[in-house]
Amino acid sequence: MASNSHATERSNLTKRILSEMTLSKGRDAASEARIDTLHPAARDSAAGRFSIAGNAVVTGGTGGIGMVVSRAMLQHGLSGLMMFDLNVEASREALQALRDEFPEAKIEAREVDVTNEEDVATSVTETVKLLGSLDMLICLAGIVGCAHALDMPVSQWRRVLDINTTGAFICAQAAAREMVRQGNGGRIIFTASISAHRVNFPQPQAAYNVSKGALLMLKNSLAAEWARTGSGTQDLEREESVWEDGLAGGAGWGGGDDAE
């Protein structure tokens, strides 16, 4: 039952459609022909700047965005990938397709509740045993909880913040502890949203907006505290379910500026 509920919440994350909302039809960018006008030298230079080495953990990894992010990192050289999610079995075929596409990489998945400290700590330890190190954490696990504030149960408010914000902190803390132990630094990336800056009216999602706004300050706070350890944090922001700028600039996902 919990897995089905999680799947429904994940689906709602990309829809957020209520009866009072009027949406445009938009356009299907994927179906439009792309003209590659980039000079080969520039293309090679860009690929070099966005090369990724080492091993990464992606929370919410078997979801739609998680799969896209994971594939992009593997395309740019990631050697080891561990996906944390609540229902790994539901994405078994997609996982195998990813393994078939990148046979040289070690790709694993593990059922993890990001709100459970012990579960996360154990999973990070097991990840290091399997992959050899933990160099990046990408926090994508999240839900919306779209409901009018007058009607929203406090339990729903707490659940959204527990998964989106506290869950991100729990995972970041566990990953940072391992990165400090390794002594090589690392990267921790949160997924914020335009909703962290502006209220995307008319969808009533106060809890979601607050949870994403809190992630921005969490990123800044952890970056200040952990800079001396070599563990950097940053956030990527998206408009609904569409990545705006993709990866933030800088070699190896370096730098701490928001990607807006």
UniProtKB/TrEMBL annotation:
A Pfam match is: adh_short
Molecular functions per Gene Ontology:
oxidoreductase activity, acting on NAD(P)H, oxygen as acceptor; oxidoreductase activity, acting on the CH-OH group of donors, NAD or NADP as acceptor
Keywords for this protein: NADP, Oxidoreductase
Q: InterPro entries in the record, alphabetically?
A: NAD(P)-bd_dom_sf (IPR036291), Sc_DH/Rdtase_CS (IPR020904), SDR_fam (IPR002347)
Keyword Ubl conjugation belongs to the record: no
Write down the superkingdom of origin: Eukaryota
Q: Which family does it belong to?
A: Belongs to the short-chain dehydrogenases/reductases (SDR) family.
According to UniProt, the name of this protein is Short chain dehydrogenase
**Organism in which the protein naturally occurs:** Trichoderma arundinaceum
